[in-house]
Design goal:
The radius of gyration is 14 Å and the shape is globular. It has helices at residues 12-15, 27-40, 71-78; strands at residues 2-6, 16-19, 22-25, 51-58, 89-96, 104-111. It has one domain (2-111): 2-Layer Sandwich (60s Ribosomal Protein L30, Chain: A). The protein is α+β, with helices and mostly antiparallel strands. 22% of the residues lie in helices and 32% in strands. A hairpin with a 2-residue loop joins strand 2 and strand 3. It contains three helices and six strands.
């Protein structure tokens, strides 16, 4: 099991931008991806094993938000670091936590174990 403390992720609406038929990662998305890369330095990878993610989102303020909009940025940013591709993610749990100054998130990644 690996636990990362990361900045608050951009929503899927801010992570990717479009120009014509081309989609690309925004500056906010790239900044988050760089923070993920830094947090993952020296950590082992789950290679091609199925994984599950548990996410605690700490908002910056009291504004209500759609917590599911942050999942895509987290999954995509972990590609190539803790797993090869986010197709390996079999389960995601996202929970809203108490607000903290500047916001943030805590992501736990572990090998997926099927519940019988």
């Amino acid at each position: 099991m690996i636990t990362l403390t990361l900045p608050y992720p951009p929503s899927v609406n801010c992570y990717y931008l479009a120009s014509g038929h081309r989609r690309y990662i925004s500056k906010r998305g790239m900044d988050f991806k760089k923070a993920v890369a830094e947090a993952c330095k020296g950590l082992p990878s789950f290679l091609d094993q199925p994984v599950e993610l548990s996410v605690l989102l700490h908002p910056r303020d009291k504004r209500l938000m759609d917590i599911d909009n942050c999942g895509k940025a987290i999954c995509d940013s972990l590609n190539g670091y803790l797993y090869e591709d986010d197709q390996q993610v079999w389960k995601i749990t996202i929970e809203r936590a108490e607000k903290i100054k500047g916001g943030g998130c805590v992501v736990t990644v572990k090998e997926y174990s099927k519940h019988e």
